[in-house]
Amino acid sequence: MRQLIAGNWKMHGLGDALGEIEALKRMLAGNPPPADVLVCPPATLLTRAVAAAGGAIAMGGQDCHSEQKGAFTGDISAEMLKDAGASAVIVGHSERRQYHGETDGLVASKARAAWRAGLMAIICVGETEDQRDSGHALHICGNQLAGSVPDGLTAENTAVAYEPVWAIGTGRTPTSREIEEMHAHVRQSLVRRFGEIGRRTRILYGGSVKPSNAAEILRVADVGGALVGGASLKAAEFGAIIACANPDA
Ligand code: 13P
Q1: Lesser CB count within 10 Å: N end or C end of the chain?
Q2: How many domains is the chain partitioned into structurally?
């Protein structure tokens, strides 16, 4: 499958940020991307971002509730995201796990909700710095993966994102060898569980991806794309990362 370059805007962006969507759309029109492109703006901007993108850039949510509807004040269902024009949703981001106490089981139920609504789920896993330093990174991410990915995965309905917590927003990244090792481990787990489907499922890398390191990361074996935080907020930077996608991946 083509690589997927996804931008996670997190809690950034007021109406004026739509200019970045328009700028990105212009860039991609002039230079067709060698990858699938997705932007996940805050929910408040989703409808307007979809309109600004005019079909040229796919849009996604950053989280969803597991239920379709109900008395869950402040929450947003996968069906609501779909209705607003989203085609994907991030679930199990480490910031949700850390600040909202999300467990693997809850993340799995959110992934199922995404599929129920017809959205692609981007299911995130990643170790903390202590876990890596103590040599447990592969084990931790393997466990998160096993608990967070429900039965029913297909290469189309899911991308897995490996995001080491210590690399998010820090400017630090694992070495290419470390990324390769983790992605091979995730691949192995997916293939063991899902067979050929697991071989085709995209495994994204996330954590301090920027124009200066994107080309190297996107050429690592088994890297199926990138999940980009800070550097996705500006069209120029995000466009430069997209241009680094590996068409032969
Ligand atoms: P940064 O690219 O800002 O490190 O964030 C990564 C991330 O968390 C994307 O989901």
Answers
A1: N
A2: 1
